[in-house]
Amino acid sequence: EGVRSIPCDITDSAQVQAAFAAVDRVDLLVNNAGFGISGAVECTAEAEMRRQFDLNFFAWVTVIQAALPALRESRGRILNISSAAAVFSIPFQSFYSATKAAVESLTCALRSELAPFGITVGALRLGDVKSCSGDDLYAGRIARSVAVMERDEQNGMPPAAIAAAVVRAAHKKHLPPVTTVGIKYKLLCGLNKLLPLSAVTALVAKIYIP
């Protein structure tokens, strides 16, 4: 009750502008749209790579640009939904991982750029993703890797827990640049700071290519 939905294809800048023109005030922008593709880098079509970045990254920039005049007035907040894949580059999920790393880099840069306007920017780092091309060439490793991700998703955090994390971040007085959600991912991201990159990469390969 009280929720108003405005349909909008965020990869279409004209639709994004029209959507914000229909809104009187913006206090909080949550960038959440996205999808994942699975497969080897070698076997991924250029159109699929570009589609991944168009929605998971460039469309977010379009939305942020359209929202900024209203956010400047309200001294509001931007929350970008990221993933542990930004920290751990997942084999056969390379382009999804790359988009999330780009999102976190954008978040930190925007945080500094928009601070003089009283706009706070942060990222919420969540958990896993899904599809399969070139599996024969990679001796079934793609399918096994995707199966691990799908199992993790089925046992992952319920949407209500993620929504609660978004609400907490929206109300936090001092929002950190990046907030990792979930004990498991907090532990893994903590280990990432302690271990050398070669060890982290080997560990991720062991988890996702059983």
Task: Describe this entry's structure for a reader.
With 210 residues, the protein is α/β, with parallel strands linked by helices. It is 52% helix and 10% strand. A four-stranded parallel sheet has the order 1-2-3-4, with helices on both faces. Helix 2 links the parallel strand 1 and strand 2. It is globular, with a radius of gyration of 18 Å. The termini are far apart. The model has no long low-confidence stretch (mean pLDDT 85).
Largest beta sheet: what is the strand line-up?
1-2-3-4
- Kindly report the average pLDDT value: 85
Gap between N and C termini? 46 Å
What is the tally of beta strands? Answer: 4
Spell out the helices and strands N to C: HEHEHEHHEHH
Low-pLDDT residue intervals, each spanning 5 or more residues? none
How would you describe the shape?
globular
Residue share in helices?
Answer: 40-55%
Number of helices: 7
Structural class: alpha/beta
Radius of gyration: 18 Å
Assembly state (oligomeric): single chain
Instruction: Report the major sheet.
Output: 4 strands, parallel
Strand content: 5-15%
Question: What is the secondary structure topology, with strand pairs?
Answer:
Layout lengths: L12 H9 L6 E4 L14 H29 L2 E7 L10 H21 L5 E7 L14 H14 L4 H13 L6 E3 L2 H12 L2 H12 L2
Parallel strand pairs: 1-2, 2-3, 3-4
Short account of what is shown:
The protein is α/β, with parallel strands linked by helices. The chain contains seven helices and four strands. It has helices at 13-21, 46-74, 94-114, 141-154, 159-171, 183-194, 197-208; strands at residues 28-31, 77-83, 120-126, 178-180.
